[in-house]
UniProtKB/TrEMBL annotation:
Gene3D superfamilies: Nitrogenase molybdenum iron protein domain. It comes from Paracoccus tegillarcae. This is High-affinity zinc uptake system protein ZnuA. It comes from the Bacteria. Belongs to the bacterial solute-binding protein 9 family.
Amino acid sequence: MRILTALPALAALTALPALAETPSVIADIPATGALVQQVLGDLGTVQVLLPTGGNAHHHQLRPSDAAALQDAGLLVWIGPELTPWLERSAAALASGTSLLLLAQSDTHRRDFNADAHGHEGDHDHDHDHSGVDPHAWLDPENGKLWLTVIAEALSTADPGNAATYAQNAADGAGQLDQVIQQVSAQLAPVADAHFLVFHDAYGYFTDRFGLEPAVAVALGDASSPSAARLSAIRDEIKAESVRCAFPEIGHDPGLIDSLIDGTDIRVGDTLDPSGAGQEMGAQLYPALLQQMGDTIADCLSEG
């Protein structure tokens, strides 16, 4: 009888599937990595390819990065529109291990509008500036959506922890709701003010929080602006009564300084749209948004 009662138990035990391990996850930029880390929680640590101070548009994979990608359980990235240096490696990954956030069906996408400030024809020598604007993480509503998408992808790879991933995503979305409320309140009093930024990366942020479109020195992927564009920007600074200018991490602030020389435009703190200058972790993404709101509000509110 002991044998008979033990056999069903043994059969049930041997029929159980092997416990799945938390997949190794790689992200393209710190902002994306922070979203992944929020969902992973204590179950794992995401590896971010873009180094501290790096430029998301211009980066070269190290051999160690390429090797890590081949062993990754999941790559989470915005897409080739932002990081073309990652496209070939991503294409070589096994099916189901590459999650393109910008391609998700419910993601809010906006097109670049090179002539939004009336510069028809002044960008002939700048980098191509058309198509979908890839800086979509700067709309926190996209961030909320992507938390859910990331949780679903991790749950597929690691179903045993699906409930944890879902709860972590929900907690992160709740935190982002608080950030949206706080930043909206900060920026509402300066919604009509004009400001200058280094490159055209802030459209999602200004759209979401009701700000005037930022005047961008460089178009597209932050390539060096042409002489014609610099001349047009000087004219626009005067026409738009630009109040503040913001340097950007990873770019020489001297160009901003030269453009506003002789004006009363204030220089704000440095903006960090991808989070490349912040400490990696789950809090990087909400902190990035809050810091951007603080920085813009502080400068535009002065005087």
